[in-house]
Design goal:
Blueprint lengths: L7 H26 L3 H10 L1 H10 L3 H20 L6 H22 L7 H6 L7 H20 L1 H9 L1 H6 L4 H40 L5 H26 L3 H23 L1
């Protein structure tokens, strides 16, 4: 494994893994605390429509996924901010719509691009330098926004009604948070894929929640755990020639079940 660090593709993979882990730790914590897991899943799977359109038009798949995810995020935020009833049905419909659009446009695209599978299930070992820089930029942007509005996001996460009475722009922050989730999803696509991204967003925060009582501490612990899962899965994929995205989520899932079992055993 150490010898492979001299290869450029492995350096890119490590950087991508660290950037994505920080993103998932920060945004995943807000997703779990605000109970937005299904919203994040809808954006993640719906973004497949953007990938299909991008392939059809000969554009960058990540650009297509980003634009589609951004539009979906705004639609979902507008629907779910006040109307919490039946949001599962609405998000499920948007989820299915995005997937269907992606499949139809890929069917209309002449020829078959094998690289498509990396967007579904991840391929951290094939992340190009341009995507690494994009992930770094998104990580910096997300970290800056969360740091600037940390107190407001914390207030909104634990008591939105009281926060609104105190003058916190809850509606604006909610829209911003959903858009940040979309950015996180796009950045994570090449690492674990659209199908598995929700696991990396939610498992580390769930485990970290049991070891922290503060939002900031939970974010840091989540980022560290996500880094461990990502690098551990990367090692497994290289050592045993396994699919990288599945290996990362396997490590995360096993850790989740062990934590869950330990909690049940204590009680």
């Amino acid at each position: 494994m150490l010898e492979m660090l001299s290869f450029t593709f492995m350096q890119h993979a490590l950087l991508a893994g660290v950037f994505v882990s920080i993103l998932c730790g920060v945004i995943g914590t807000l997703v779990v605390v605000n109970r937005m897991v299904f919203i994040a899943g809808g954006i993640a799977h719906g973004a497949y429509g953007g990938i299909g359109i991008a392939f059809f038009m000969g554009l960058s798949p990540l650009l297509g996924a980003g634009a589609f995810a951004f539009i979906l995020a705004l639609i979902i935020a507008a629907i779910t901010f006040k109307n919490k009833e039946r949001i599962d049905a609405v998000i499920g419909a948007l989820w299915a719509f995005g997937m269907a659009v992606g499949i139809v446009f890929i069917d209309l695209t002449q020829g078959y691009n094998v690289d498509l599978m990396s967007y579904l299930f991840g391929s951290i070992l094939s992340v190009p330098q341009s995507d690494v820089w994009a992930m770094g930029g998104i990580t910096l942007l997300v970290a800056s926004v969360v740091s600037a509005f940390y107190k407001e996001l914390q207030a909104m996460s634990f008591d939105p009604e009281f926060a609104q009475l105190r003058g916190v722009p809850v509606k604006l922050l909610y829209y911003v948070l959903v858009v940040l989730v979309a950015l996180c999803v796009v950045a994570t696509i090449r690492v674990v894929g659209l199908v598995l991204v929700i696991a990396l967003l939610t498992i580390p925060p769930y485990i970290a929640e049991g070891f922290s009582s503060k939002l900031g501490v939970m974010m840091v612990l989540s980022a560290l755990m996500a880094t461990f899962f990502t690098l551990g899965g990367l090692w497994l994929s290289v050592a045993y020639d396994l699919t990288s995205g599945a290996s990362i989520i396997l490590v995360a899932s096993l850790s989740f079940f062990l934590t869950l079992g330990a909690k049940r055993f204590k009680t």
